[in-house]
What does this fold into?
Amino acid sequence: MSVADVLIRGGRVIDPANGVDAVCDIWIEAGRIAGIGAFEGNANETIDATDRVVCPGLIDMHVHLREPGQEWKEDIESGSRAAVAGGVTTMCCMPNTGPHIDHAGVALQIIARAQQVGLCNVHPIGAVTKNLDGKELTEMRELARAGCVAFSDDGMPIWHAGVMRKALEYASSFGFMVIQHAEEKELTGGGAINEGWVSTRLGVAGMPVEGEDSMIARDIMLARRVDARYHVAHISSRGAVDLVRAAQAEGLKVTTEAAPHHFALTEEEVLGFNADAKMSPPLRTEADRLAVIEGLRDGTIDVIATDHAPHHEDDKRCGLSCAAFGIVGLETMLPVSLQLARDGVLSMPDLLAKMTCNPARLLGLDSGTLSLGAAADIAIFDPDATWTVDRDALVSKGKNTPWHGKELTGQVTHTLKSGRIVYAEGAVRG
Amino acid sequence: MQPLRHLFGIDGLEVDQVEYLLNLGESFIDINQRPLKKAPTLRGKTIINLFFENSTRTRTSFELAGKRLSADVINISASTSATKKGESLLDTGQTLAAMQPHVLVVRHGVSGACEFLADYLGDTSIVNAGDGAHEHPTQILTDLLTLRCAGGYIGKTITIVGDIAHSRVARSHLLAAKLMGYTVRLVAPKTLLPAEVERYGCEVFHEFDDAIPGSDVLYMLRVQTERLTDNCCFPSIREYHEAYGLNRKRLNAAVEGCLVMHPGPMNRGVEIATDVADSVRALILDQVEHGVAIRMAVLTALCGAQQHLGRPGRSKQMVIEAMRGQGSLL
It folds into this structure.
């Protein structure tokens, strides 16, 4: 046998796409997976993965990279570095940049910049409407040719029912998926946190759960009529999970994703007016949290995605009601999600599928597997290592995390991108 | 008793702290009635009133409270301050704190503004003079002192009528009722009630007339007329007065000796009829008078605690834990 570029030895290799879950080695050559099994041979670099899990590099299909336009919050380079620190090697970035990803030039610019950085695959999500203003459709075919893998006005809901219908009709004509940030602003406008006992106690305007549920209900009806691929972003409520489950039972092409904060935290996190626990949709009740977990368990929710939304400190330090919506998530996605495996909600392979092959299948990506010949995008983590989140130690420019000061279990030790070690033992390389 | 480092709200106060403030406040009533209204208690102390919302009685009573106790008092209102130039709450607070006042009295439209500022302002004590729809603790202390002087509040039923959803006074009363041993009834249509409000342990009524029998105090909230109709909370002022206005007929239906309160400013003819507002049953001006005494007590307690503590007492995290721990309250 020739000399491996990298040999990963003795880890628990989990490749959900191929049903692999075994302790073995991975032989990497020319940036690709050249073999999975037991190898005796020379390697330029050997990683001892004993007692660690080796899996495909994670895919986060819902990320805000803020470039172009708001580079003081995050940029493609800092976002890529944060990604690989979290074991993520592929991300999809949302189009609410400045300018928006509503024409091909912006998509091409982002892809080119991400390739230049070279740490993480970045696939843009194109806007559904020009300027995200919910009126005129974008040139989706051209955006797709430029590399957009799905379409969304994320951050803004596509609130106008007529426009949503046309968007679903047009997108589905070409097999494109529409991702909805479901929020009926007539109901949620002015709100900062979930409407309920906590919002009442704090005297802060609430966002009722019906704001999310009613728009999903409407969209499912429209998707049924036009046989569209409809994907609910960051699902957060019990009612919404029930709606998606029923739509799937009907055979509709309706899918959804959950963010770690929605299955790990509840609205009580905002007590004390904690702006770092403010996002949209907001953290909800324990019943909602458990419903999201049940949706993950029974497969209604296919994907875990972070809605990584970095903000500058100034946008958060102005009181809960005025603070920007969103939290960072790339660096905490894996450990927070691993709790589901520890709790027995999902097996480790099924859990990892929601961050690897499932989003790859939805978006038509060739990443998210350890198949022979695939690009060697790999995450290695110690499932039992504990660490305390320190906002100032985050790689992302955004420090807005509700996990600051909390202990998490599960730590990424290595990330490989196309066979190159881009993150190892706490440091991003290159 | 735990010394009072800040006064953010009724939330986080202990019974003995409330009683201490009421006792102190009661002792100050006398000073306000003397011909020479001055005591040396707070000589050398600096108090800044920082008001981002309009206020007549709260601001004036804090100012008088400080001045009658010989403190140096400065008033800053949002319309004259740098906030018009876009300076943030945080910068304004830090700038004023850098001038080393002993107490910063803050009114702000954002709920949690005082807790937020306290994280950044070092040794300055902060008094919440009303934050958004969250809390208005000195109003509630004022009301309790007024009721104490009128025969007591323990075991009594206070019926609060009006826009509960946007009312910091109602929220603070709901917390104080639990703490101090009185009952609160709420009267409002569902459009003016916040979510899950019954979890405070209060009785909720939609018909005013149903709530009147058994009430010892009818507490009328100010109606913000523009808020009422703009947000579809109520069809008209006319119908509001018919449904929720306190008139002589309704007052006559109450138990004998039923008292009337209002945190002010009143809309005569809307939430309260003029003859009721001016009747002997109304404690509205007593509330104003006692407001000065209570604010004297609060300023005295905070300045006294600074001398004893010199460091933060009850941390924000402890308040959060207390909220979590209050079983039925959360």
Observations:
- The first helix of chain B runs from residue 15 to 33.
